[in-house]
Amino acid sequence: MSETVVIEFLTSLGQALSSMRLYSPGHPARTEAVERVHIALLETLATAGDPGLRLTFLGDDVVLGDRRLRDLGRWSWGSQLAAVGVERLEVVRGVPAAEVESFLTEAVRRLEAAPVRPAAASEVAGGGEAAFPSVRLPHLRFGRVAESAHEPESRSFDGELQRVGALLESARVDGTVEATVAAAVVQAVGAAVQQSRNLLRLLVPLKEIDQYSTIHSMNVSVLSIGLAERFGYGREDVHSVGQAALLHDVGKSLVPEEILNKPGSLTPAEWGIVKRHPADGARILFRSLDGLGVAAVVAYEHHMTWDGGGYPERRFARAIHPATRLVQVCDVYDALRTRRPFRGPWSEERIVAHLRAGAGEAFSPDTVDLFLGMLESLEDGSVAGSSPTSG
Fold this sequence. Notes:
Blueprint (H helix, E strand, L loop, with lengths): L2 H20 L5 H19 L6 E6 L2 E4 L2 E2 L8 H7 L4 E4 L5 H17 L7 H7 L7 E2 L3 E4 L14 H17 L4 H17 L16 H19 L4 H12 L10 H4 L7 H7 L2 H12 L4 H9 L20 H16 L10 H11 L6 H15 L12
Antiparallel strand pairs: 1-2, 1-4, 2-3, 4-6, 5-6
Helix pairs in contact: 1-2, 1-4, 2-4, 6-7, 6-8, 7-8, 7-9, 8-9, 8-14, 9-13, 9-14, 12-13, 14-15, 15-16
């Protein structure tokens, strides 16, 4: 799809939103605005393949499919639309002018009804769903990144898993990752976590050994977002933790598959290759720029222990980053519950005992307490983002 044509469509969309907020329904200027957007949209769809046009609005960034529109410049309407529940816009060929008008009219209604102050995280990801529901028309749909507030546990994350796989492949081949793609995945995961009654049901089961890195990265992000919310982190910090969790093992993209999936013990040489992945991951993320500083730190530190051990070896005594403390507990939990070529999955009781035994040595005691408290609350049926409790 031509990015130039998409940018022209977005320009006409912004102009239409401005016009429709200035003029009352029935005014010729509103009719002309709808016509311009419809024509621009049809021209865009003419250059699109299947399934059509898919745009995601992430703050000041606009993502076309899986890639950020770098030549768009600052398009302020993206953040405004996202704030009123239009985080994603999907359109297929044959869309009539009536559906375009319905979209524009509803978008303007929401924009005019929205509070001037920035929305709180609960309003954006959870509490605002009733006011700003997703809308599905025959050729056009728009709403939150998470597609349904009523079916979060049934989410397969198929599209997000494909994006994570592409991120890891980009890291392996090009030595960089696309931060906006990671951000889109984390936004989808975060919305699903907010809406879920039990985030453990969001964890993706491993079906094939070769999928482990992708699925593990997704699951650690789900758990870390839930834990960060339980710690009371703000929206931006929760997103940052989720992104760091998603990318914590990106350095393993450089480790040969035959080593990662070896059924027996590793040789000293093979273990030396595996132990390079934290530093490799940090280098990949630092090269990628685009706000991945925390992710780079977590990638480097996630095998460092609370008491100063682990790897890479620290050159001087220092505490690990708060985000690392969250991610590494979630990392170990998901890794141990998953079948690997060299061992079977651990039982829940054995994993909990392992985390308790490691508190104060391998793991931050407060983090272990809060994580286990989160698991207990999920068993009781309460929401992951509820008030913190001590385990």
